[in-house]
């Protein structure tokens, strides 16, 4: 709890999103506080949230965009890659395998929708994510 309140107090009043230390901002704090608030000491949940936030920031059309098709595909790709790593270590985790397949299907549906509605975003998104696109 203390960690979250410290981080929230450092963020600006206009930015309400939860963040760990933003590397772009030059914070003036001691080395000990920097270590405590760094992403390397964060929980796995906080690291997943931070990576999802970074990917969303890269695909946003504007500052308030959090649910466009591009962002959804990018976030699903991050989740799928994490599940893929988990399933390599735990191949008999069938409930995770089921969730993995559901996420693959959802991403495939979103990709088809994006291809149909906005082909330029489709090509950009798949190239940026390193996925092969079918024209």
Low-confidence stretches: 1-18
As for the number of domains, it is 2
The CATH class of the largest domain:
Mainly Alpha
Architecture of the largest domain, according to CATH?
Orthogonal Bundle
Give the structural class. Answer: mainly alpha
The portion of residues assigned to helices is 55-70%
How many runs of DSSP E, i.e. beta strands? Answer: 0
CATH T-level topology of the largest domain: Helix Hairpins
Average pLDDT, all residues: 80
Family: Belongs to the universal ribosomal protein uS15 family.
InterPro entries: Ribosomal_uS15, Ribosomal_uS15_bac-type, uS15_NS1_RNA-bd_sf
Pfam families: Ribosomal_S15
Protein name: 30S ribosomal protein S15
Overview of this protein structure:
This is 30S ribosomal protein S15. The chain has 2 domains: 1-42, no CATH class; 44-135, S15/NS1, RNA-binding (Helix Hairpins). The protein has 6 helices and no strands. The protein has 135 residues and is mostly helical.
SSE map:
Elements: H1 2-10, H2 31-37, H3 44-59, H4 69-89, H5 94-117, H6 119-129
Helix pairs in contact: 3-4, 4-5, 4-6, 5-6
Protein name: 30S ribosomal protein S15
GO molecular function: structural constituent of ribosome
Keywords: Ribonucleoprotein, Ribosomal protein
């Amino acid at each position: 709890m203390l960690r979250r309140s410290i981080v929230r107090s450092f963020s600006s009043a206009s930015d309400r999103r939860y963040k760990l230390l933003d590397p772009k901002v030059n914070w003036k704090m001691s080395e000990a506080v920097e270590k405590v608030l760094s992403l390397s000491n964060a929980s796995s949940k906080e690291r997943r949230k931070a990576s999802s936030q970074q990917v969303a920031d890269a695909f946003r059309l504007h500052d308030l965009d959090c649910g466009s098709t591009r962002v959804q595909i990018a976030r699903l790709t991050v989740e799928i890659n994490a599940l893929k790593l988990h399933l390599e270590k735990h191949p008999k985790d069938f409930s995770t395998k089921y969730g993995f397949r559901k996420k693959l299907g959802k991403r495939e549906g979103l990709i088809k929708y994006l291809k149909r509605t906005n082909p330029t975003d489709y090509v950009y998104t798949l190239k940026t994510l390193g996925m092969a696109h079918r024209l």
